[in-house]
């Protein structure tokens, strides 16, 4: 599939990318190759193949959620260096 420069400019605008004319030509060529490769993948028979959700062989060790003990807000605020009635006071991070 051939991607023209106008499509590249539109995609670049949507992705907030900026590049010069020579880079647009290279980007057009690269994206066309990627789409050609994806089209080849579409030709494969994937009947009966389970979708791949991760590349990791790790298995999550799931546990059942249980209600446990927790601190009430007075106990949680007891050791706070600064507090304001029922809330922690923290340094300002935004101007």
Topology:
Blueprint: H1 5-14, H2 21-42, H3 73-78, E1 83-84, E2 87-88
Antiparallel strand pairs: 1-2
Helix pairs in contact: 1-2
Pfam family, one: GatC
Protein name: Aspartyl/glutamyl-tRNA(Asn/Gln) amidotransferase subunit C
InterPro entries: Asp/Glu-ADT_sf_sub_c, GatC
Labels describing this entry:
95 residues, single chain, flat, 4% strand, 40% helix, mainly alpha
Structure description:
40% of the residues lie in helices and 4% in strands. By secondary structure, it is mainly α. It has a domain at 5-42. Strands 1-2 form a two-stranded antiparallel ribbon. It starts with a helix and ends in a 7-residue tail after the last strand.
Largest sheet: 2 strands, antiparallel
Residue windows where pLDDT falls under 50 for at least 5 positions: none
Q: What is the rounded Rg?
A: 27 Å
- Total number of strands: 2
Percentage beta strand: under 5%
- What is the arithmetic mean of pLDDT? 86
Given helix and strand content, the structural type is: mainly alpha
């Amino acid at each position: 599939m051939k991607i023209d420069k106008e499509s590249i400019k539109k995609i670049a605008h949507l992705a907030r990318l900026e590049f010069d004319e020579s880079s647009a030509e290279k980007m057009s060529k690269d994206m066309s190759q990627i789409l050609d490769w994806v089209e080849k993948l579409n030709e494969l028979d994937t009947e009966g193949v389970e979708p791949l959700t991760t590349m990791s062989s790790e298995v999550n060790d799931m546990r059942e959620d249980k209600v446990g003990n927790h601190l009430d807000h007075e106990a949680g605020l007891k050791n706070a260096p600064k507090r304001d009635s029922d809330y922690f006071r923290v340094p300002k991070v935004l101007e």
